[in-house]
Amino acid sequence: MHRLRTCAARLRPLTASQAAQTVGQQRPLTVASTGNTRTFQPIRCYSTPVASEPFLNGTSSNYVEEMYFAWLEDPKSVHKSWDVFFRNANAGAPPGAAYQSPLSLSAAPGLAAPQLSSLVGAQPNVEKLVEDHLAVQSLIRAYQIRGHHVAQLDPLGILDADLDSCVPTDIITSSDKLGFYGLNESDLDKVFRLPTTTFIGGSETALPLKEIIRRLEMAYCQHIGVEFMFINDLEQCQWIRQKFETPGVMQFTPEEKRTLLARMIRSTRFEEFLQKKWSAEKRFGLEGCESLIPSLKTIIDKSSENGVEYVIMGMPHRGRLNVLANVIRKELEQIFCQFDSKLEAADEGSGDVKYHLGMYHRRINRVTDRNITLSLVANPSHLEAVDPVVQGKTKAEQFYCGDNDGKRVMSILLHGDAAFAGQGIVYETFHLSDLPSYTTHGTVHVVVNNQIGFTTDPRMARSSPYPTDVARVVNAPIFHVNADDPEAVIYVCKVAAEWRATFHKDVVVDLVSYRRMGHNEMDEPMFTQPLMYKQIKKQKPVLQKYAEKLIAEGVVSRQEYEEEISKYDKICEEAYARSKDEKILHIKHWLDSPWPGFFTLEGQPKSMSCPSTGLSEEDLTHIGQVASSVPVEDFTIHGGLSRILKGRGEMIRNRTVDWALGEYMAFGSLLKEGIHVRLSGQDVERGTFSHRHHVLHDQNVDKRTCIPMNHISPDQAPYTVCNSSLSEYGVLGFELGFAMASPNALILWEAQFGDFHNTAQCIIDQFICPGQAKWVRQNGIVLLLPHGMEGMGPEHSSARPERFLQMCNDDPDVMPNITEDFAVRQLYDCNWIVVNCSNPGNYFHVMRRQILLPFRKPVRPHTLMDVYRDLNVHVWLQAGVDANISRTHFQRLIPDGGVAAERPEEVKRLIFCTGKVYYELTKERKNRGMEGTVAIARMEQLSPFPFDQVKAEVERFCNADLVWCQEEHKNQGYYDYVKPRIRTTINRSKGVWYAGRESAAAPATGNKNTHLMELRRFLDTAFDLDAFKDQQ
Ligand SMILES: Cc1ncc(C[n+]2csc(CCOP(=O)(O)OP(=O)(O)O)c2C)c(N)n1
Ligand SMILES: [Mg+2]
């Protein structure tokens, strides 16, 4: 086959007679016009049988392969010309000799190979002509595939953007290379017919070879390197070819050039102004890639022209202040005052450095005269971590405004070259880009490729040729561009925006640039990049180069240029003067996602109370019925599932619920109240433990599904439940972003098992835990983390509650004032809520409380794997707690309500615990007949700590010693968190003893026997009333 491919590479679709009469003919039209957008019809369809295609139409080696396999199966199934070709090739004809002119086709089939060989060369002129045409076609294709490798992308002219100095053999850098194609210098003036896969001809269908090469050079080897030939879709490839190959396509009007110059002035002079005023401050300036600003503005202008109203952006440190000033148009004085160390913070929390803050701004786009909202999402230092967050927020904004195909809301993501290549989250984010529940219908990625990451040379920082190769996995075209050519930059940005508007897929603009200063303005780059920086010092700034070009062209005069500079400098100076008046820094002004109407005008919660989370019996019954039915006609579900639904119906009749039904009722009731619910994560639709079944699958019809929860009532909010890609970092980030967009939605992410959250640790540590403190941004995301020691080994056991508890912001040593609104105020003050529900009723209530609270906090309930499985049935969502079900609520602590409570003073031990160990403890207590001597209280909300209720419980069992019992190891779980807080509650009057597994490195043993022995041991300790005598 390899030999056939070699032959095929030399073929081109042109008969000799066609070749002779090409000049002046129109190329066959492949463009269909549909309204404003032009779409390309596929030129060829590969449907089987491929037989009817004649030999001379074959254009690609894949195609030849297909043809070959069809021929192998049945030589008659292909066109005669192919039959002859394959028989000749199989008979050993060398490349170029297997082809027979169609003129001899009639004779061919009957001829044996030796006879055929006598025909080869029988018409030497025709054959040479065809071969030369085929060669030219290969040459064109070579430029389309590999032209970017020789494009002049590095403004410094010292590095190869693809890290490879070799020039591909098939790119014609000198006339002797024509030999690769069997051509020579004398062919340069010959005219060749152009194939339909190129647009270099413009209105011409044939060109001299010399001109073909020149035009290919112009299209692919100047300041733009286009990487796109890996895209599987022919229509998309044609679209790109047309955008870059059509002669004269990169034309700018004088007006456009002047606008570009003005934008370059702003970008450059902004950095110069900051450098002049605060030379000793870090700002991660944009010097060396100033064309980023016009590039972003072009993408936004073009997108606005195409109907986009809202652009959500995420970006790292480099040039961020410049983007805020000149793209988002944050008031300059607000930026400048951030440099003032005397500025006091008005808001609570830590705040963040100026180059991490977010922004939200609605304004008129001056170019299109349309409204546009721009939001830059606040981010941590952790590079690229913001990517999925931006995507999630974008998806949410699209969802809430009914923008189903991303025509009104879009995202732009900026990247550094080193981070884009090195950070895995980039890949995880790309993999969400085309999934139905996660797509944002195309993101424009812009890489500030300054060819360095801090002090590391790209040759040491990546294994891929370009930093952008990760984008190839989703077939995103990649436009590399020399950032010192502002017009080329603007052109690719226009194409990128059009690409997104046309195909609604991701696209990458790679601004190949340099970094004029060190990593930050204090850094000495000559330590590590001496040669590069010697060159940089010689490099004329891009603004100066572009201004000189426009002055030479007569587009602007030097005076106009200088006036434009003075005008912007004056704007900066005036803003600087105003910034001196700012005495207080309001982080609130830097909010990226305002929630209009949710807070008071001062940004406070509208109340400090939480209504009952209970529901009427009627509502519970109704939702329960939906949960146990198939609301669609002629829909066949699996027999096992029918039994599960029947079981649910039974529970409704018995007024009991299991975990899945409790969750169903929580979600269903919120949907009924108009609250959107979105549950996302791996296999959440069915549920890892096969308990949920929120999506029913028709057993007879492929892809026919039904989500009963969307059939609760006609005016309900929609329910989204989606199995995610196998990613935690990307998907949790995405859901966090989704939850940012609106407070009126319950957004949940579930880990397959709790411990898998650690691959998303950055989102937890950098965004969820401190998000409000850093960026005054609340977020009500729910993390469902299955947890429980069940002898399943070190993995799949622990959701690592100790980590979440360690990051809670409450003070273990201070007993808070117990006021009437204590429970809610405590929630308001905390950074997040950690709960561990021991029954489905409490899970139901805590889910509803998330939404009924007048503010939003992330919550992290452990969901108990055991409870999923044992169908631990509870009576009608705690109806027993309150006779009137509509007044029930989440219980932060479930006190002992059994025999021990009857004579509390006789109780010798009060055991506090949380989660599933409660069931082990009650069983053991019963077995030992100690119901009257040992009380057991369940802490359902660990953080914020229920100081008031712990206090009440300790006072009730006043003669009891206190034990914390957990199934986790001592250095894990809850002990380190609860112990000091219980001690503070009781004014350190008693000890808090420990019953649980010993300290260990791994979360659980892999040996079932050891697991059970450990359990036995700590239960013995928990019920041995003398166990702690020696420690008193
Ligand atoms: C996840 C992560 N690792 C390390 C760092 C430290 N760091 C900050 S900037 C930087 C270099 C980034 O290089 P690049 O992505 O090319 O951006 P540039 O600074 O060149 O614009 C590094 C390593 C970080 N901020 N985030
Ligand atoms: Mg870099």
From TrEMBL:
Q: Which UniProt keywords apply?
A: Calcium, Glycolysis, Isopeptide bond, Magnesium, Metal-binding, Mitochondrion, Nucleus, Oxidoreductase, Thiamine pyrophosphate, Transit peptide, Ubl conjugation
Output one GO MF annotation: oxoglutarate dehydrogenase (succinyl-transferring) activity
Q: Name one Pfam family in it.
A: 2-oxogl_dehyd_N
Q: Does the keyword Membrane apply?
A: no
Question: Where is this protein primarily located?
Answer: mitochondrion
Q: An example Gene Ontology cellular component term from the record?
A: mitochondrion
Where can this protein be found? Mitochondrion; Nucleus
Might you give the EC number(s) for this enzyme?
A: 1.2.4.2
- What sequence ranges are listed for the domain Transketolase-like pyrimidine-binding? 657-861
Biological process GO terms, please?
glycolytic process; tricarboxylic acid cycle
Q: Which cofactor does it need?
A: thiamine diphosphate; Mg(2+)
Organism's domain of life? Eukaryota
Keyword Ligase annotated: no
> Member of which family?
Belongs to the alpha-ketoglutarate dehydrogenase family.
What name does UniProt use for this protein?
Answer: 2-oxoglutarate dehydrogenase complex component E1
